[in-house]
Amino acid sequence: MIKLTWLSHATWLIEVEDRRVVLDPFLTENPSATATVESLGEVTDVLISHGHFDHIADAVELVRRNGAQVYTNYEVATWLGTQGVGGDAAPEPVGMNTGGGIDTGFGRLQFTPAVHSSSLPDGSYGGVAGGWRIQTATIQLYFACDTAWFGDMPFYARDVDLAVLPIGDLFTMGVDDSLAAIKLIEPKAVAPSHYGTWPPINQDAETWADRVRAETSAVPIVPEIGVPFMVPSSP
């Protein structure tokens, strides 16, 4: 089984057996977050989809505190090295590129395409933005992360038990395009992300869920911030 906890914005805690994986850590300056780097407890791995501040802000502190293994794109991995990640503080970050995969302690991990920009907090080049496909022996997850709708999604999100899609609009796809994406990739279940943090990306997730039920075959899951839920697995 896989347990997920939405920590608000686009930050997720993914628990697979004894691995505790944090995706896009943004807590300290996140007005919606209830967790802190300290309150998360042990973190074994960190996934970073791209270099924007609201996806990487707490990565260095989180990794240093836990000695966690980072997976991200090559340019972000290189930048993290300049921030002291690696060596004595933690394992060297694993830098990936679009379409590449690696076997990890929590399953097969693939860095999937996203249609989005990427720059680092100091303004330097952040490589390409991406999403993540995580495959265990029984469950397959797709985190689209920050992206627009794009036609190749079904290839990377094929047969997933749960897809996590942004719905905030303005910086990512909004509600209408998320519905189009759900119809395209046909996940068994779907959860929203990247919304509600600030007024420009406020959305009514329950209304979104009603539309998912009415317009697609997917089961919508609207998580509460900080409340874990189990990912439904295939029969």
How can the largest sheet be summarized? 7 strands, mixed
Q: How many distinct beta strands?
A: 14
Structural class: alpha/beta
- Assembly state here? single chain
Which residues sit in consecutive blocks of at least 5 with pLDDT less than 50?
A: none
Strand content: 25-35%
Radius of gyration: 16 Å
Order of helices and strands: EEEEHHEHEEEEEHEHEHEE
Mean pLDDT: 97
Task: Identify the strand order in the major beta sheet.
Answer: 6-5-4-3-2-1-14
Question: Per the principal axes of the C-alpha atoms, what is the gross shape?
Answer: globular
**Number of H- or I-type helical stretches:** 6
N-to-C span: 13 Å
Estimate the helix proportion, in percent.
10-25%
Key descriptive features of the protein:
6 helices; seven-stranded mixed sheet; 235 residues; alpha/beta
Structural description of this entry:
This protein is an alpha/beta fold. The protein contains six helices and 14 strands. The strands form two sheets. Strands 6-5-4-3-2-1-14 form a seven-stranded mixed β-sheet. The model has no long low-confidence stretch (mean pLDDT 97).
Short summary:
The chain is α/β, with parallel strands linked by helices and about 240 residues long. It is built from six helices and 14 strands. The strands form two sheets. A seven-stranded mixed β-sheet has the order 6-5-4-3-2-1-14. Strands 7-8-9-10-11-12-13 form a seven-stranded mixed β-sheet.
Blueprint of the fold:
Layout: E1 2-6, E2 12-16, E3 19-23, E4 45-47, H1 53-56, H2 59-66, E5 69-73, H3 74-82, E6 94-96, E7 101-104, E8 107-113, E9 130-135, E10 140-143, H4 153-156, E11 162-166, H5 175-185, E12 189-193, H6 205-215, E13 219-220, E14 229-230
Helix pairs in contact: 5-6
